[in-house]
Structure formats: C-alpha cells, structure tokens
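Hi, here's the filled form for the chain we discussed.

Project: internal
Contact: R.S.
Residues: 150
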Amino acid sequence: MPSGGSWNDVVVAKQRKRRTFVVPAAEVAATPPRPRSGPHSVRPGRFNGANDLFDPQGHLVVEEAEVVDPSEALRHLEAGALVAQDVCGCGGHLECQPTWYSAADRRRMVAAGAPRGEIQGDSAWIDFCRAGERTVLFLHGDIVWGDVTS
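And the returned structure, exactly as it came back:
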C-alpha cells in the first residue's frame, strides 16, 4: 500500500488521468461557445478547420461508439437518428465533407430495412454519435442503405 494513503486513492487518481476518445456530454455542454470565425468556428453540417463535425443545426457531433450491427443502426434510425455519410471511407475532414440525408431520405432508409455491405472493416463502418439531444449515425465508406446511399 502507498505511504500516506490507501489503494483506493491510487485507483481514483489513475481513473482521473485516464481519458477516452469519447467526450462526455456534460463536458461538451460545459464548453464555452465557439467563435464565429477561425479554425474552431461552428460550420453547420460540415467539418471546421479543427476537424470538428457539426450537424446541420450547428451542434457539435460527438462520437460515442462504433456501430457494427446493421440491425442496431436501423433501430437508431427508426428512433429518429440523423444520418451523415463520408462515401470514400476516410473518416471525414475539412477537405472531405459529409453528405447529410433529409427526413424523406431517412424514411426511405427505414422502409428499406437494415443497411447492407461489409460494415465490419477498415473501409466501411458506422459511428454512433450525439449532436445536442439528437443521435447521429455517421456512415463511412461503401454502405448501401436502400436506394439512398452508395
């Protein structure tokens, strides 16, 4: 046991140092407003110069998990998720902006059922994200969803 403390103190200290890729929603909500210009500015529906993605309403898109199961992606879409796609599978960035699908497109995607294609791979995957109070499915690569995507 460390001198002057307990093992519990050591575990708590290590947990505080550990950061994950996912930014907790409370931390995002506590972030000060973004500037209107420059690399960190809000770009509705686009990546900004700092490689932050925003939904069409200007909310920061924060990745929570990678969805690999097509039926799970369909459940999120049925529950009202927004859908964006980077067709080339690069992950998206300032020079490769996503396509955002309309409400009509999303209804056609739901009617078509789960997406098809090699979703578990280096070139095609689906990220489960949050943007404000909304869920966002960010499709990467050659994912076929009804007659709407690739």
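Let me know if anything looks off before we file it.
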